[in-house]
Amino acid sequence: MTDNPNKNSKPLMTGFMKSTQLMEIDGCNRCQECMKWCPTFAVRQDRPEITPMYKNAKWRQLLSRQHSLRAKIFGPQPIDDDEMKVFTEEVYMCTTCGVCATVCEAGIKTVELWEAMRPNLVKRGDGPWGKQSFLPRLLTGDKNAYQGKQEDRLCWVPKDAKIEESGEIVYFAGCTAAYRQQALGVASVRILNKLGVDFAMLGKDEWCCASALVRTGQREVMAEHAVHNIDALKDRGAKTVLFACAGCLRNSAVDWPMWYEGYIPYKSMPLSAFLRDRIRNGEVEYKIPLNFCVTYHDPCHNGRHLMHVLGKDWAFEAPRECIRSIPGVMFKDMARNRELQRCCGAGDAGDGRVGVC
Fold first, then answer.
1. Which helix (H) or strand (E) holds 259?
2. pTM of the model as a whole
3. Domain range holding 115?
C-alpha cells in the first residue's frame, strides 16, 4: 500500500476570520443572484467555481474536513495540494468589487469575507497568486509598487504651485498620481490652488496606501504602511485629508484604522465631495463651457466599499454634482451605475482583471 502524499498536508487556517464571517459561510442560501452580477464570471462562464456561491461552498467543505465535529473526534482529513492550488486560483480571480454583497439576499459582507479568506491562504502557503507575491518586497524597499524613488514623489508638481509644509488640509496624492497618472495630480493641485485652498502634501513622507496588500491577503507590510501614513498626517496637523484615488481613500477610511492603536484626528474625504462644497458655496467660477456628453464610472473602492462608511451622498452623488455644475456638459449615467456599476477590473491586483477590463 502506497503512502498518501497528502497525509502531512498543512492545516487550513481560519485565524484571520471573525466568528461572524464563519457564520456567513453557512449563511449562503445558494440563490445564485451573485452569479448574475459577478463581472469575472461574466467573462469566464466556463468557471462557475469563481462565483461567491461556489467559493463559499468550497470553503465550507474544506473547513469541515479540518474543523468539524467529525474532524475533532476522528481527526482532520488531509487536504489535497492540487485541490488547494485550484481553489486558490478561484479565490484570487475575484476582483473584490463587492457587487455580490450589494445583491446578496442573505446580506453577506462578501468583500470582507474574501479579504479574510485570502490571508489564511497566504499563511498556509497557497497564496498570493502570480506576480502578487512581489508586492511586499516592492513596498518594503521602494514604499510603492512602481519602483519609483521617494524623493520623486512630488517631481510632477508645477513650479508655480503653492503647497504648504503643514496644515489642516492635506492632499494625499497616492502612488499612481505620483508615478504614472501625473496629470491627475497636477489637475488636483491646480484646482485647489485656483480655489485658494491652503493645503499640504506629505512628499517623500507619503508611503503607498498598501491597498493591494490588503486585497491580496498580504497583511504584514500593510500594518507598517498604515501606521507610518497616519503618523505622518498627524505630524502635518491634518484635520481633513483629501483623496482623488479611490483605492487610497478606501484604505484610509477602512483599513488603516484597523492597524492603528492611537487617536486619528482627521477625516478622510473624497476630493469630489470637497469640491462640491466649494461649488455649492459659490466659490467656483467657470469661464469656458464644455459642450460634451459626459458619463461617470463609479469606482468600487469609492462607491460600494464606502457607501456604508462615508454615505451614499459622498460615494455617488458628489462627483455627479461636480460634473453637472460645468456649463455646457450633458451628463448621462451608464446603464449600470452607483452600487450596481460594473467593476473596471483593476482594483485588487487580481488575476481576474484582464477579462473584466
1. helix 256-259
2. 0.87
3. 19-127
